[in-house]
């Protein structure tokens, strides 16, 4: 039911029309999300809902887009929301997965840099061997050449 201020009531939250689908989907997939929410005024509830939507936005980011600070802030916000009665095990799991993926990406990045460094070093060694081989070939050719008459006489 639309209110006169451009919002609709969804599970006791006043939601702007731009967020209606997102909020409906949250409560459809996770009906327990606000089932234990302690009574509070509408402004505070909406502030908490906005925090929840922000956390979901963070969980949607690619691991390389997340900073350690954002992940720490997200964890603190999640704990605050759980502290006031939100049931967010599903979101906690997603955020933890993001943290694990970020750590794996960082580890993988370190390994890739190490492999790249090793390749550069091996290319240097190979180049030095190619130069040495070319010198040996040149010497072999000069020692195996036939002598001319004038060289002998």
Following the backbone from N to C, one meets helices and strands in this order, namely EEHHHHH
* Helix-strand makeup class: mainly alpha
Biggest sheet statistics = 2 strands, antiparallel
Strand order of the largest sheet: 1-2
Q: Given the C-alpha coordinates, what overall shape results?
A: rod-shaped
Residue share in β-strands: 5-15%
Kindly state the percentage of residues in helix: 55-70%
Number of strands: 2
Oligomer: single chain
Compute the CA-based radius of gyration. 33 Å
Task: Compute the number of helices.
Answer: 5
Mean pLDDT over all positions: 90
- Poorly predicted regions: none
Distance between the termini: 115 Å
Question: How does this structure look, described?
Answer:
The chain has 153 residues and is mainly alpha-helical. It has a domain of 105 residues. The protein is built from five helices and two strands. The chain has a two-stranded antiparallel ribbon. The mean pLDDT is 90.
Structural topology:
Elements: E1 7-10, E2 13-16, H1 20-29, H2 42-60, H3 68-83, H4 89-144, H5 149-152
Antiparallel strand pairs: 1-2
Protein name: MATH domain-containing protein
Organism: Brassica campestris (Field mustard)
Coiled coil: 119-146
Keywords:
rod-shaped; 2 strands; MATH domain-containing protein; MCC; mainly alpha; 153 residues; coiled coil
Outline:
Residues 119-146 form a coiled coil. The protein is mostly helical and 153 residues long. The protein is 69% helix and 5% strand.
């Amino acid at each position: 039911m639309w209110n006169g201020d451009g919002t609709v009531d969804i599970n006791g939250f006043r939601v702007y029309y731009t967020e209606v689908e997102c909020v409906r989907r949250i409560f459809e997939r996770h009906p327990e999300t606000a089932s234990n929410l302690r009574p509070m005024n509408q402004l505070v509830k909406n502030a908490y809902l906005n925090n929840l939507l922000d956390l979901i936005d963070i969980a949607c980011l690619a691991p390389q887009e997340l900073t350690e600070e954002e992940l720490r802030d997200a964890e603190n916000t999640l704990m605050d929301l759980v502290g006031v009665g939100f049931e967010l095990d599903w979101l906690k799991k997603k955020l933890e997965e993001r943290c694990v993926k970020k750590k794996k990406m960082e580890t993988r990045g370190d390994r890739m840099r190490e492999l790249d460094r090793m390749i550069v070093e091996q290319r240097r060694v190979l180049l030095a061997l190619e130069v040495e081989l070319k010198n040996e070939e040149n010497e072999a050719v000069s020692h195996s050449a036939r002598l001319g008459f004038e060289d002998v006489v």
